[in-house]
Write a structure and sequence with these properties.
The structure holds 2 protein chains of 2 kinds. By secondary structure, chain A is mainly alpha-helical. Chain A is built from 5 helices and 3 strands. Chain A has 2 domains: 66 residues, Arc Repressor Mutant, subunit A; 45 residues. Chain A has a 3-stranded antiparallel β-sheet with strand order 1-3-2. The mean pLDDT of chain A is 94. The mean pLDDT of chain B is 91. Classes of the chains: A mainly alpha, B alpha/beta. Chains A and B meet through α2 and α3 of A and α6 and α8 of B.
Chain lengths: 122, 235
């Protein structure tokens, strides 16, 4: 994974794991790799890998079971809320980018509808 | 864990290391950064006990470095240092005789992953293979401190990833890994601390993730900012 310079690496890896949670690739209750395995998987510092799980635990998205490992939360409603939040962020990013190109919000919506129609025709 | 106090080395009219005070803690992978000639190698050689400071001191666990620390510090220099008649297997035996913490099992595991054969003569090794062999013998020690001088030099992209994995595997709360490099991007994700040297002086010591969070800068950005246009070589 290539990391961008502007945000901490733990945050970028946490976002990747969250994406896998909401997409169902990591279903509720799934076991996550251990800290060192995560570090190896992403080629990151083991302290950074530990931080990823600490932050996900703080958000209630993973459970650390002592001596057992780290698991995706069983609370499906938390994952659903996470998904809504990520969708909202993606929509805001789109709106911001269109605004930076000089489009109004209504125009931005028209663009995405047009894009969707063209996609359907293909 | 590894501490230098006003460490200084003068070669003739040139001050290679100039009053560098550093305190490196266990549990971290630390990148020592700076262009060629900034004092990284000389600092490491003094910390490994291989070169006598002009003034200042180095401490390992609170004690001046010496015979005891040498048994716990695995140092990899930039120069090739194997006898040319030796095979890789001979080198490993030599290391095993020399260092009580050398693990033949770990060594063989690293060789296999680096795709190196034990019966190769060191004089027949390409520069990339030699670099990998050096890493393998060094990382096969169960040291408390590993100091790797330019571990990624002359090594292709795939082998760099293998070396990074070996480094990540060795990291532990009671161990310290220190790597020097001018290939800053290679250090970016695996190091968590960075030390910047310039003209023998300590410029800055940072926690990499904190730096990213607070300034939005990677260590490569920081490197460019510190060394600017002269980024390459120093006289």
């Amino acid at each position: 994974m290539d990391f961008n310079a502007s945000s901490p690496i733990w945050m970028q890896v946490a976002t990747r794991i969250k994406t896998e949670m909401v997409s169902g690739k990591l279903p509720p209750g799934a076991k996550l790799p251990g800290g060192r395995e995560l570090a190896l998987q992403y080629t990151i510092n083991p302290n950074t890998a530990a931080r990823v799980y600490q932050e996900l635990e703080k958000e209630g998205l993973v459970e650390v079971r002592r001596g057992m490992g780290t698991y995706v939360t069983e609370a499906a409603e938390r994952i659903a809320r996470l998904r809504d939040g990520m969708a909202r962020d993606a929509a805001e990013d789109y709106m911001d980018r269109m605004a930076s190109l000089g489009y109004t919000r209504a125009e931005a919506v028209a663009w995405i509808e047009q894009e969707d129609r063209e996609h359907a025709e293909e | 864990m590894l501490k230098s106090e006003a460490l200084t080395k003068v070669f003739g009219s040139k001050t290679a290391v100039d009053h560098v005070s550093l305190n490196l803690e266990a549990g971290h992978i630390c990148a020592m950064l700076g262009p060629n000639g900034s004092g990284k190698t000389t600092w490491m050689k003094m910390a490994a006990g291989l070169c006598k400071p002009t003034s200042g001191q180095v401490f390992f666990d609170g004690e001046p470095i010496g015979v005891k620390s040498r048994a716990s510090v695995a140092y990899m220099s930039t120069e090739p240092y194997f006898y040319t008649w030796m095979t890789i297997r001979d080198v490993a035996k030599y290391y095993a005789d020399f260092f009580a913490d050398f693990s033949m099992e770990r060594f063989r595991d690293l060789l296999r992953r680096f795709e190196l054969e034990e019966n190769l003569k060191t004089k027949t090794l390409s520069s990339g293979m030699m670099a990998k062999a050096k890493i393998a013998v060094t990382m096969a020690r169960d040291a408390r401190i590993w100091m790797l001088d330019e571990p990624f030099n002359g090594i292709d992209l795939v082998a760099r990833d293998q070396i990074k994995s070996a480094i990540i595997e060795s990291a532990a709360p009671d161990k310290l890994l220190l790597m020097s490099s001018h290939l800053v991007e290679e250090m970016e994700s695996i190091a968590d601390r960075a030390v910047f040297l310039r003209k023998g002086q300590l410029i800055k010591e940072v926690d990499i993730e904190t730096e990213r969070a607070e300034t939005g800068c990677s260590i490569a950005d920081e490197y460019r900012r510190i060394y600017g246009a002269q980024g390459g070589e120093e006289a």
